[in-house]
Amino acid sequence: MNKIVTLAFSVLFLASCVSSKKYKDLQSEMENAKMSLQKCNDNLATCESEKAKIAADCKNQVATLDAESKTKSGKIKSLEEQMELLKKTNNNLLERLSDLSIVSKAGAESIKKSLDALNEKDRYIKDLNNAMARKDSLNMALILNLKRSLSGVNSEDVNIEVKKGVVFISLSDKMLFKTASASINEKAGMVLEKIAKVLNDHKDLNIMVEGHTDNVPMSNDCVADNWDLSTKRATAVVRMLEKKYKVSPSRMTAGGRSEYDPKASNDNADGRKANRRTEIILLPQLDQFFKLIAPQS
Asked: In angstroms, rounded to a whole number, what is the distance separating the alpha carbons of residues 182 and 238?
C-alpha cells in the first residue's frame, strides 16, 4: 500500500518535470502495483473461505461422532440395566432356595456359575464400550490429520468421512485418471503423497483401496470392461503408494467393485459422476482391535 501511495505522489510530482515516456512508465508501474495488491487480497479471501469450510466440515464430523457415541452409550446402558435386573433376580432366587433348603449342592453350583457368567458378560460390555470410545477418538484424530494435510485440495475431488466405524477417503476419477484410463495424473500424485504421509504416521492401520465406476459399459484396447477398469485403477493407486511414497505393501489390498456399489443413482450425470471414484479405506488391524477390547489394567 505504501508503495502505491509513493508511486502516486511520484507521478504527480514528476508529471511536470520528467519526459512523457518516464511519466507513462511510472503510471504503468503504479497500475501493476494496484493489480498485485488486488491479487493478494483475492488470494487472502480464498484462503479465509477455505479455512471456514474446513472448520465447518470438522464441526460436522465431531457432531456425527458425538451422536453415534450417544446412541451406543444408550444401548449399552440399556443392556447394563437388563444385566443388573437379571443379577438381582437370580440372587433373590438363590437366597429363597437356600432358605427352603431344597437346593442341592450341584444346583447351587450351577446357579453360581450362571451368576459368574453374567458378571463376566457385564465386564465385557463395559470393556467394549470403552474400546468403542477409544476407537472413535482415534478415528476423529485421523480425520483431522487428513483434512489438515489436504486443506488445499478441492473438496469436490476429495471427501473424508466415517462409515461403519472406519475412515473412508473418496477420490474423484477426474482428479486421479483420464477418461477410461488407469494412468494416474501428475496432480493426483501430489494428493496421494499427502495421504501417504498420514498413512505412514499410522502404521497400525490396514489399507483397502477400492475402484468404482458408473454403469455405462465401456471397453478399449487396454480395458476389457468396468470390472477391469475399477480393478486396474485400484491397483495403480496401491502401486504408487508403495513404490513412490513407501507405504508398506503388506498393509494394502486392492480391489475393483465395478458399478455394483454405487454411491448415488446412475440415472443422471451427477449421480454417475459421484459413482466414478476410488476409495481408500483405513481399517484397524485385527490384533490391534483385540487389544482395544481387552480389559484395561
From this structure: 12
Query: DSSP assignment, residue 177?
Result: B
Q: How far apart are CA 196 and CA 174, in angstroms?
A: 20
User: Whole-model pTM?
Assistant: 0.57
Half-sphere exposure of 29 (CA within 13 A, CB side): 15
Per-residue pLDDT reduced to its tens digit, 215-253? 999 888 889 999 999 999 999 999 999 999 999 999 999
Quote the CA–CA distance of 289 and 132 in Å, as a whole number.
10
Instruction: Please work out, in degrees rounded to the nearest 5, the angle formed at the alpha carbon of residue 138 by the alpha carbons of 133 and 142.
Output: 145
CB 167 within 8 A of CB 64: no
Q: What is the maximum alpha-carbon separation in the chain?
A: 123
CATH of domain 154-297: 3.30.1330.60
DSSP 241-261: HHHTT---GGGEEEEE-TTSS
DSSP character at residue 202: -
- Return d(Cα 61, Cα 84) in angstroms, integer: 34
CA–CA gap between residue 55 and residue 186 (Å, rounded): 28
